[in-house]
Automatic annotation (TrEMBL):
Signal peptide: 1-20
Protein name in the entry: Nitrous oxide reductase
Organism: Sediminicola luteus
Cell compartments where the protein resides: Cell envelope
Primary location class: other
Length: 653
């Protein structure tokens, strides 16, 4: 009977989803005078710069897109987990190792949650981190070059979803598993899941000097699903909070079986305590196999190293380090306010929003206000940790952000709206529709002690009638709201790349001054660089041929090569000799099974070409670099495998 009523509830929620997305039910947001003032607020005049950068996750595109706010203009798609022919990411020899994993070359992923590095609880703009859900990885993007410079695989994980959030001095970037799995992986009946699978919460240290990442330890938690997480800050710095669902530990038909418990948990992890335990020799090393890929800015080349062990910690061995806060109904988002006092659990199937108090949590721990335990982890008494509830704010809460002025903003997927409410009084003060079915939302700095509460960006799952139709597949989209007043004001819709989940925003002034313009030639340590035309050459080593080539407006050196044979493996290593801002050159070879290369000033990149037929084959520059761009070309003569043509190369002869 109980099971049946759950099913009825779930299908009712499903029906509401449809209502929420029904264009017929929408209110018009096209008010004449109002829309002209909205237009002014997002207008960034030609040649002017936006006030904020927004890094918006690409979801199933695997990438990270960079937009300006308030204009919504797209500046760059940073390739992270997926091959990108535009930038040769994962195609050229230099970046292929970045996509190496313990499963081999994995050129795609599903990226959800970018988070910007912090110092003393404020955004510092050095790095942005983002998670790969599918083949668990964490990537780091350097915000001087806007390039992915490090990717670490996360062992013992599957569905790396409660990731990648940073602590307030970027001590750790934290990655929690969504799926619990056998640890170590082994062949066993799925029906024996309960009590046997584990959920790994990984604390990846970030070296304060060079940003280098390393899995410091993994906490092996009970076999729940770990959905989202956020660090404590201010008074709660040193703690990390994770929402869980499927505390039922079901392995089948989760839509019903993981919706049975009235409350799931937010797991509170005292990482400082575990760090101390580990630093004193606690935990145990277990065999593992995971890739650590690092891109070197001076060699312009990535290396991939397989790591062979990982330190794991059983929470029951560190008393006082982990507690469970009961939280109604399969919470999704887990969000901590800028003061660090309030921990918001967004129960997807709950009528109310649950807010826990950090102070009350410490008190409940101190006074042992426990309601039993789960696998030895104390469960805190719900009423003893509850700060308050926001009563019936909407349907299907997902995520909450904060403006730093005492207000919180929560997205409701089913009722398709952003709801503004007050911390402490728990009163709803405003609600605005989204078009439609909003997932995450983002306030620049919203995940820090210092939010810049000027705009909120809502990211929507469904757009239907909002844009010109483009066949069955229509764009996903973001919506920008002004939140400077008591009431929110919708300013702008703009399409996004892939499916945006979370985003991270930051004032442009923090990043702009550090943005690199060129790579210095004298710092180029690429193994096959030619730093001047005098250094160019072609070297044969058996069937392998290495071409040390340069490019500068508007020629390649050399541009005529002879003596290549069918069956050769020809490596083109091309250095862009330009030392001016915004003068990349491209290069492409007919029939090469790879992408073009787009090479920045001072950089060297390589591609492989295996000529299949004798002939004279052209190559050319793919980036319109000067008035004589169309003259920037060359020829390679390919002879039969048994020919005696000498290897030779030239320019202008
Ligand atoms: Cu809510 Cu992956 Cu953060 Cu999407 S998750 S919405
Ligand atoms: Cu170089 Cu076009």
């Amino acid at each position: 009977m109980k099971r049946l009523s759950k099913l009825v509830l779930l299908s009712a929620l499903g029906a509401l989803t449809l209502i929420g997305c029904n264009p017929a039910g929408k209110k018009s947001d096209k008010g004449g005078a109002l829309s002209s003032s909205a237009a002014e607020k997002v207008y960034v005049a030609p040649g002017e710069h936006d006030e904020f950068y927004a890094f918006v996750s690409g979801g199933f595109s695997g990438q990270l897109a960079v937009y300006g706010l308030p204009s919504g203009r797209l500046f760059k798609v940073i390739p992270v987990f997926s091959q990108d022919a535009e930038k040769a990411w994962g195609y050229n020899e230099e970046t292929k190792p970045m996509l190496n994993t313990s499963y081999g070359f994995v050129p795609w992923d599903d990226s959800h949650h970018p988070d910007i590095s912090q110092t003393a609880g404020e955004l510092d703009g050095r790095y942005v981190f983002i998670n790969a859900n599918n083949t668990p990885r964490i990537a780091k993007i350097d915000l001087t070059t806007f390039e992915t410079t490090e990717i670490i695989e996360v062992p013992n994980s599957a569905g790396n979803h409660s990731s990648s959030f940073v602590t307030e001095n970027t001590e750790y970037v934290v990655a929690g598993t969504r799926f619990s799995v056998p640890v170590p992986q082994r062949d066993m009946p799925i029906s024996e899941y309960k009590g046997n699978f584990k959920g790994a919460l990984s604390f990846i240290s970030v070296n304060p000097e060079d940003g280098g990442m390393d899995v410091k330890f993994q906490l092996l938690m009970p076999g729940f699903n770990y959905d989202l997480s956020h660090p404590g800050r201010g008074k709660s710095h040193g703690w990390f909070f994770f929402t869980t669902y499927n505390t039922e530990e079901a392995s089948t038909l989760l839509e019903v079986n993981a919706s049975q418990n009235d409350k799931d948990f937010i797991a509170a992890v005292n990482w400082k305590k575990i760090e101390e335990y580990v630093n004193n020799g606690g935990g145990k090393m277990m065999p593992a196999n995971y890739a650590h890929n690092v891109y070197d800015e001076h060699t312009h080349t990535a290396t991939s190293t397989m790591k062979k062990e990982v330190l794991v910690v059983d929470p029951s061995e560190v008393p006082g380090a982990v507690y469970l806060l009961p939280t109604p109904k399969s919470p999704h988002g887990c969000d901590v306010d800028p003061s660090g006092e309030y921990i918001v659990g967004n129960g997807k199937l709950s009528a109310n929003l649950t807010v826990h108090s950090f102070t009350k949590m410490l008190d409940a721990i101190e006074n042992k206000k426990f309601d039993g335990d789960a696998y030895g982890i104390p469960i805190l008494n719900f009423d003893s940790v509850l700060a308050g509830t926001v009563e019936q704010p909407g349907l299907g809460p997902l995520h909450t952000e904060f403006d730093g002025k005492g207000n919180a903003y929560t997205t409701f997927f089913i009722s398709s709206e952003v709801v503004k409410w007050k911390l402490g009084t728990w009163d709803v003060v405003d609600r605005k529709s989204t078009y439609y079915s909003v997932g995450h939302l983002m306030i620049p700095g919203g995940n820090s002690q210092k939010p810049f509460g000027k705009y909120v960006l809502a990211m929507n799952k469904i757009t239907k009638d909002r844009y010109l139709p483009t066949g069955p597949e229509v764009t996903q989209s973001a919506q920008l709201y002004d939140i400077t007043g008591e009431k929110m004001e919708l300013l702008l819709d703009f399409p996004t790349v892939g499916e945006p989940h979370y985003a991270a925003g930051i004032p442009a002034d923090i990043i702009k001054p550090n943005s690199k313009k060129i790579f210095k030639l004298e710092e180029n340590k690429h193994k096959y660089a030619a730093l001047s035309e005098a250094d160019t050459k072609v070297v044969r080593n058996g069937k392998e041929v290495h071409v040390y080539m340069t490019m500068i407006r508007s020629h390649f050196s050399p541009d005529n090569i002879e003596g290549i044979k069918v069956g050769d493996k020809v490596y083109f290593h091309i250095t862009n000799l330009e030392q001016d801002y915004d003068v990349p050159h491209g290069v492409s070879m007919i029939g090469a099974n790879t992408s073009e290369l787009l090479i920045m000033p001072g950089q060297t990149e390589s591609f492989v070409w295996e000529p299949k037929q004798p002939g004279v084959w052209p190559f050319y520059c793919t980036d319109f670099c000067s008035a004589l761009h169309q003259e920037m070309q060359g020829y390679v003569r390919v002879s039969p495998a048994n020919s005696n043509i000498e290897l030779s190369w030239s320019l202008g002869e």
